[in-house]
Amino acid sequence: MNLLFNPKASYSQTSRYELVFIMLTGVFLCTFALLNVLGLTRIINLSFSLGSLQVPIIIPLGVLPYPITFLCADLITEFYGKKRAQTVIWMGLVVNAWIAFILWVSAFLPPQAPLDAITHLPPTTDPNFAFYQIRQYTIAGIFGSMIAYIVAQILDVHIFQWCKNYTQGRHLWFRSNVSTLLSQLVDTVIVISFSYFFTNAMSHLHGHNNNTFSTLFIIICSGYTYKMIASVLSTIPFYGAVYFLRYYFDTSVTTKESPTQDPVPSTT
Which CATH topology does 2-109+132-248 take? Predict the structure, then answer.
């Protein structure tokens, strides 16, 4: 812990770089695994009224921690470059595939519960009902989110790096917000559309509305609005983290970094 909180301790710069990389990667992978498990298990209804106008806001629980993954990806791209950031993204893909595999295999272990032919769930009185419901939601959500995850996270890294090159390393707020907002829009549309049309879980979201496309539009807009607000607000912790890490890595805060130079020191 002294290595983390005492930047002037007698440790090599490489050790500090690698420690922060491990921490950012750990937060990124744990958050992504958690949000897919929680995903559709609970729906948060934040709808409200403005006079006679009803404003529907419906957000799946798994959406809430998602902006943290983009913040971690931006920090990794900022300090370690696009190649390392993309490696972490593929690690996230492997972790989610492993979760889906474990959940799929576990259903075949004894004792096996009798499943309904339509819902593919046991009776609600069965002690295994909660597991099978979470399994159904999680596996369906993982496949949808894996597609969106690959597209959105890789898009986020490329846009962030392009903005960094375009502004010659200046304007942190610009590259952080532009990359995150665009990639989160793509992610929201893909994952919600996939889950809506290819799983039964999303049917629980529109009991108040029989119009499929209207409901889908509401869910996409609600999720993206939350992500957009979270992205703008995350500019503050992003700036704070960048300035702290520049100091922690013994890099001048006022020095404009080269957009093409990998800041990680050589270990050779």
Answer: Arp2/3 complex 21 kDa subunit ARPC3 (1.10.1760)
